[in-house]
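Re: the pair you flagged

First of the two:
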Amino acid sequence: MKALKKLNAVLGYICGILITITAIILLYDVFCRYVLGEPTLWAQQIAAYMVLVATFFGTSYALQSGGHVHVEIIVDHLKPLPKKICMSIGYILAMIFVGGVVNSCYSYAMMSWQNGWDAQGNVPIPAVILYGIMAVGSALLFITLLATLIQVWIKKGKEGEEEC
């Protein structure tokens, strides 16, 4: 699990850098559009691609670091064993959903590879790259959810709290 933590942390920093670069690109586009009167043809699409990468590669880091929103009104008042059970049910439901996302993204990646699809717009990159990023990021989130679920049951100390 230490390797997963390190990988998620590295991806988290990369995502932060991507968001920073996205902001700079969009500021450049705003400058070109309103000051020079010549908008770029590529900035918004490149920014969208970078946000896509940051979103899908950053979700597992957000889970690992506790960055997702949790509504724990009931769970906080439970005894340790029922709390672990409730947390486990939540993680299992999340894994089912994320597993479906992985399957769909992988299927679209394969279809785009076989059919040679390109993303539409001014920057037509192969769609397999975008779907592949979504599939890999979702698979990493699935693995992190599984690791977090395991950690709920083997963790010593404060029962049922999450830590990946």
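Second of the two:
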Amino acid sequence: MTKKERTFVFNICVLLYNLVLGLVIEGFLFLAVIFLISKNQNLAESIFSQIALPLVLLAGLITAMAISVKTVGWFIKKFNLEDKLDEKLVSRYKKDN
């Protein structure tokens, strides 16, 4: 396999990982808000219940992106993929400390 083919396969795997990670985090946060609203009737009747969903979705998206960048960077470093993948891709995920 060439670098281009390996990079393509790696990008597909990262895409699937991001989808699963995002769905898990969004689902967890959404269930937490539903639980919070169901336990407190005052919250259910307030403006909080109307703005909670967009805020939860935004927080979940940002959290999923941050976790994804860290774990993909760790994966590249752990399995020594720096020389096997495109340099632009590696520089996007791997931050030298």
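The two ends are 31 Å apart (CA to CA).

-B.
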